[in-house]
Amino acid sequence: MKIKTGLLLLVVLFLACKNEPHNESSIISTASPKYETYNYSGFTKEEVYGFHQRIYEGGNWTEYGDLERYFYLNFSQIQKHSRILRSNSPRVLEETPRDDVKNFITTTELKKGGGLSLNDYVQQVEVNGLIIIHKGKIVFEGYPRMFPTDLHITMLITQVFVSTSIAILEDRGLIDTDKSIDHYFDALKGSGWEGVPLKDILSMSSGIDRPLATYLESFDPIKDLATVKSVSPSGTKYQFSNVDAAILTLLVEKISGLTFSKFVEQEIWSRIGAEYSALLGINTNGTTLSYLDGMSTTLRDLARFGLAYTPSGRNNDHPIISDAHLANIRNVNQNLKKVSRHTQETIYSSYLWGAVYEDGDFYKGAHGGQGLYISPSKDLVIAYFGTANTDRESNQLNVIARQLSKSGLFDLE
């Protein structure tokens, strides 16, 4: 009885607290928002109680469906985290909804929902939120399974915040990506990392393959990472590994003298005009979860980050994304060519972006249906959140985003 009473009290406390973003002050307001909400009403008290009961009893949040979606939208209740403070001058995003985008017909080759209009697709398939920005203006925005002010987990998309941080330091001459990682960490000499250039780590071709189980617990991450072995020569084969993003995060912290969250806050989040503060997961060893669960942000703020790569976002005297960085993303390692299993096109990995297309567009996806697609040449950003259903089916907005980019709807005059 005492355990049940304690559990009930815990849930009541959770229900009594508002989500962190709602506690922000001086948030810019939208007098008459033009986004689609589809009458979303949030979780019931019974659903919230059931989720926390499941976790209290030792259950795992990775159950897919609404149970997992609750975790995605309530990260601060479950995971230890740091806070990345919002900008003092949020960037206002003009809303100019376009019916031709809303009614765009998706490809019939999708596993589910093919042939639907974009608006119908996000309602009927596993999409939590979708935003499309063209020439700096919102042309479509919908929230079928979340609130616009919700912080939603981005997971592996956080890795491109890592590579952007590396690029910022590179632009300042503080990092040379042609140099090997052991040039910056003496403890890595004699390990599998020795001689591996940063540019190969940035393209996820370090040749290091190892689970992060011990790293998550270690209180000396570099010493732990020094025990790894190389399984293939670097720069010869794309091999997804969270450990590549992990070691680059440690490099950002060493060179900048700041925690990763503080660096992102000062050099990225405040400069993109983020409207809400973000959350960043912390390991049991106190280090940053920049390569797994990662950051939690609003959808609009994720899109604001994407805008930093486009002409509309770079139209100022001190853009976050330099010409050199854009060129470096496109200057791909030809050895890492592969065919996308989603679009059947040739793609490359560069600066931790999961797909760099031959036309210069690039994309990063994440577990459960999160994604950020950027087309600098079309001044286009597509960002979305989702949660796989209990059959482990996710949305295919990665395919639709590519289809939209090539549709002609966003070609610049």
3D architecture notes:
The protein has 413 residues and is of the alpha+beta class. The protein has one domain: 3-Layer(aba) Sandwich (Beta-lactamase), CATH 3.40.710. 31% of the residues lie in helices and 14% in strands. The strands form two sheets. A nine-stranded mixed beta sheet has the order 2-4-3-13-12-11-10-9-8, with helices on both faces. A four-stranded antiparallel beta sheet has the order 1-6-7-5. The longest helix is centred in the N-terminal third of the chain and has 15 residues, at 2-16. Residues 1-30 have low confidence and may be disordered.
Distance between the termini: 69 Å
Characterize the biggest β-sheet: 9 strands, mixed
Query: Which second-level CATH architecture applies?
Result: 3-Layer(aba) Sandwich
In total, the number of strands is 13
State the share of residues found in helices, binned by percent: 25-40%
Number of domains: 1
